[in-house]
């Protein structure tokens, strides 16, 4: 008898917990604001659009799905541009080189800068002038361009000499 009571108590506790979890899910996901945010995040994370986001929502599925789709479209239209392409070159001596594709970037004032391996800060854009060179930016928005540029543990930028 005692075992049966304990067993029924745990089943009742589990079922009420599941009901609470379901209510929490509905409260947190089955509204237009949450649907819009989930749509934006899905797009920015590169996931496919959910054709029926609101399938587990008990009411207002059309409105919730519309908000999700609007968020997804917004997320797609505000994605950062892809990183510049790199061209891999083998020089015939067994050496492998990365070459950046030429690109042009525009700053906040409409000035355009073109080159290779470009880097942008809130204040400027710099691009390397040769395809095998690149630019790096330290945490303080200092930019340096050259061959094999890198930042050390002390945020010093170093580039190889062009010999």
Secondary-structure-based class equals alpha+beta
Low-confidence stretches: 1-15
Overall domain count: 2
If you compute it from the alpha carbons, what radius of gyration comes out, rounded to the nearest whole angstrom?
A: 27 Å
User: What is the first-to-last residue Cα distance?
Assistant: 89 Å
How helix-rich are the residues, as a percent range?
Answer: 25-40%
Average pLDDT, all residues:
79
Number of helices: 3
- Number of distinct beta strands: 8
Question: Per the principal axes of the C-alpha atoms, what is the gross shape?
Answer: elongated
Sheet-strand content, in percent, reads 25-35%
Main beta sheet strand tally, sense and closure: 3 strands, antiparallel
Order of helices and strands: HHHEEEEEEEE
Write the layout of secondary structure elements.
Blueprint: H1 2-29, H2 32-44, H3 61-77, E1 86-90, E2 96-100, E3 102-106, E4 112-120, E5 125-128, E6 134-137, E7 143-151, E8 157-160
Antiparallel strand pairs: 1-2, 3-4, 4-5, 6-7, 7-8
Provide a descriptive summary of the structure in words:
By secondary structure, the chain is α+β, with helices and mostly antiparallel strands. The protein folds into two domains: 2-77, no CATH class; 86-160, no CATH class. The protein is 36% helix and 28% strand. The protein is built from three helices and eight strands; from the N terminus they run H-H-H-E-E-E-E-E-E-E-E. It has helices spanning 2-29, 32-44, 61-77, and strands spanning 86-90, 96-100, 102-106, 112-120, 125-128, 134-137, 143-151, 157-160. The strands form three sheets. Strands 3-4-5 form a three-stranded antiparallel beta sheet, with no helix packed on it. A hairpin with a 5-residue loop joins strand 6 (134-137) and strand 7. Helix 2 (32-44) runs parallel beside helix 3 (61-77). The longest helix is centred in the N-terminal third of the chain and has 28 residues, at 2-29. The termini are far apart.
